[in-house]
Amino acid sequence: MPFVSEQELRKQTxxxxxxxxxxxxxxxxxxxxxxxxxxxTTLTDDSxxxxxxxxxxxxxxxxxxxxxxxxxxxxxxxxLTLTGVRINEHSAxxxxxxxxxxxREEAWGxxxxxxxxxxxxxLQMAREEA
Length: 130
Fold this sequence. Notes:
- By secondary structure, the chain is mainly alpha-helical.
- The chain has helices spanning about 5-10, 25-40, 50-75, 90-110, and strands at about 80, 85-90.
- The chain has a two-stranded antiparallel sheet.
- Strand 1 (about 80) and strand 2 form a beta hairpin.
- The chain is globular and about 60 Å long.
- The N and C termini lie far apart (about 40 Å).
């Protein structure tokens, strides 16, 4: 069971819109983040949870969520060029991946005292080179 609840996660973040971020999607990201924490740290479901651990789980959940969002966006991304206007949907994917990387880095920085190894390798999506 995750260290933070869906409600606490929504309260601490910008993910308050249930239509844009369905509960099932958020709970799945939260569970995936929690499992990653348990696999890569000495923490267990019975560990006492301080503010840093809770915030790390929130940040890692955001990283997982942004990676999933980037993958979904990449599937349908199209660059459009109209007279005088260029719409680059692939840049949205890059932005979402950059946010995911930032949240993941912050999370593992907070979890460093509990880490089993130096630092887990970040989960990266394959990026298309231009």
